[in-house]
Design a protein that fits this description.
335 residues, 0% strand, mainly alpha
Length: 335
């Protein structure tokens, strides 16, 4: 019979194994960091993929690990974008300062909004999170003396990264900057979800009532997860404004939140690589198809999603299972 001490040690060992890095992960990130310089003609889309992946990573923390459905996550993305752009234009053009300020502002906004998602059903949370995004978009539109209104905030000039690396037209510095930020946030998020705190989030995701029954403070856990995710989304928005030198009302649009859900459907929820893989697949498909047929690329993306849902993600990435050759059948044959 397991004693409480041995059970605690087993749980600790499970968390340590889950957070341990595999060799292929290190290789994957090394390749990712080299891509902006090896494929410098595609640095712009690599930068875009890294930003979207960070944005999807933030949603996965609350959707995949806590079970909170949100269609207003663009509110934090947009707040981060406008904060970084305004900070650069009026106070200090240093990118890292701007990134830190944008993260703090988005985190504070997330802490305020977390009160609205602690209660209610998934439907009410959807309405509330969408409402917050719409309110912020309208505020950015009305405060045109500050934000530029419908024309967007223009004339955002960024200083050199670390005082040394200028943002070039090819986007190599911007892409490297975004990938490094994505990697740091991925490491922190991995540490977060594989901690004892992260285990309580998974318990809330699996069964909220049971989590309450065993003494987990569900409301405060949801508030913390939502706040952390908002800060990460704000950093993604800040990266977009800093690397493009522009912030517009588009950053608050509903389609940005909806696209995130698509990315997690493609890549999978509840594991941090889901958002990264979803961002790569979605953006590469979008870029390739729109270059062939600019008018009908949404049709082919939609068709891909329908096939993905009908066939299943596992079977799409493992074509050999299409012909009934699965590992389970192999085992049956061996038995």
């Amino acid at each position: 019979m397991n004693t409480p001490d041995s059970s605690s040690m087993n749980n600790t060992n499970i968390l340590m194994r889950a957070g341990r890095w595999r060799w292929w992960e290190l290789l994957l990130w090394a390749v990712a960091l080299s891509l902006p310089w090896v494929m410098n003609t595609h640095a712009l889309i690599i930068n875009e993929i890294a930003i979207v992946a960070l944005f999807a990573l933030s949603l996965d923390i609350i959707l995949g690990y806590t079970g909170i459905v949100s269609l207003g996550h663009a509110a934090f993305f947009g707040m981060g974008a406008y904060t970084a752009a305004l900070f650069s234009k009026h106070i200090n053009p240093d990118p890292l300062f701007g990134l830190a300020v944008a993260m703090v502002v988005a985190t504070v906004l997330g802490a305020l909004c977390s009160v609205t998602v602690q209660r209610g059903t998934d439907l009410t949370r959807l309405m509330v999170t969408m409402g917050v995004g719409l309110i912020l978009m309208e505020l950015a539109n009305k405060l045109d003396w500050l934000t530029g209104g419908a024309d967007g905030l223009q004339g955002v000039m960024m200083g050199p990264l670390l005082g040394r690396f200028e943002f070039d037209l090819y986007g190599s510095t911007a892409a490297t900057y975004s990938i490094v930020v994505l990697f740091i946030m991925f490491v922190l998020a991995r540490r977060f979800v594989n901690s004892p705190f992260g285990s309580t989030l998974k318990a809330i995701h699996d069964n909220r009532l049971r989590a309450m029954a065993i003494g987990i403070p569900v409301a405060s856990r949801i508030a913390v997860a939502y706040t952390v995710a908002a800060g990460a989304a704000g950093m993604a928005g800040a990266l977009l404004a800093q690397t493009t030198g522009f912030a517009s009302l588009d950053v608050f649009e509903f389609h940005r939140s909806a696209d995130l859900v698509l990315l997690l459907v493609i890549g999978g929820v509840g594991w941090l690589y889901g958002g990264v893989i979803g961002a790569i697949v979605f953006k590469v498909l979008q870029d390739a198809i729109s270059s062939i047929t600019p008018q009908y690329w949404t049709f082919w993306i939609g068709l891909f999603l329908v096939v993905l849902m009908l066939v299943g993600r596992e079977r799409v990435v493992r074509p050999w299972t299409w012909f009934g050759i699965s590992s389970s059948k192999k085992k049956e044959g061996a038995a």
